[in-house]
Amino acid sequence: VLAMSAMPTIGGRELAELLASGGRPSREAISEVMGRMLLGVAVGLALLLPLLMATWFAPLLVHFHRQPPFAALRASFHACLHNWRAFLVYGAALAIVALLAATVSGLTAAVPVLGVLVSFAIVGALLAVMVPVGFITVYASYEDVFAAAPARPVEPDDGEPGEAPAGAEEAAPTPALPREPGEGPGPADRS
């Protein structure tokens, strides 16, 4: 909430005032407001980044390695920090795709009548492709970073409350440290 509220707070008031003035703003005023808005986006992303790092692998660590939620958040954060170069490249690639999609969508939306429909179609098609690809990349990065083979999920049984489910003792050990891509056996090397 703090990260998302920082974006419009920094520079948002100036933008609202500029738009409400009714007249044609000068280049200097636009430049100043855009600089403030860019600063707001940078601050918001800086605050959001640790949260994204903590939640990147956490659901997979909870499910496959049976880690408690806070331990999984901590392990995910450290794994992302340890592999920052790969995540930087991944983030840059996503930013380029998003920028290209926004540019194409904006240009087509400028065309009267059908442009808006084409723009919505482009955004819809992009989402239909990128959302599944995003989930696949999360799992692929998990496979790359954590060398231990994931344990099979334990099926719940009808045992007594508080009793460990059947097969819980067969859980895969929690990896001590994530590994760099290319270090040691990876998913393709396991048999």
The averaged pLDDT comes out at 77
Largest sheet: none
Helix/strand structural class: mainly alpha
> What general form does the structure show?
globular
Give me the strand/helix succession: HHHHHH
Distance between the termini: 44 Å
SS strand fraction:
under 5%
Radius of gyration: 23 Å
Describe this structure in words.
The chain is mainly alpha-helical and 191 residues long. 68% of the residues lie in helices and 0% in strands. The protein contains 6 helices and no strands. It has helices at 2-20, 27-56, 58-65, 69-82, 84-109, 114-145. It is globular and about 60 Å long.
What are the defining features of this structure?
191 residues; mainly alpha; 68% helix
Secondary-structure topology with pairs:
Blueprint: H1 2-20, H2 27-56, H3 58-65, H4 69-82, H5 84-109, H6 114-145
Helix pairs in contact: 1-2, 2-4, 3-4, 5-6
